[in-house]
Amino acid sequence: MYSSTFIFAKKQYDAEFHRLDQIIAEAAKSLPGYLGEEAWENVATGVYSNVYYWDSLDALQQLMQHPAHLQAKAAQANWLDGYKVVIAEVLRSYGQAQLGLTNSAGAAAQA
Question: What does the DSSP 8-state code read for residue 77?
Answer without folding.
Answer: G
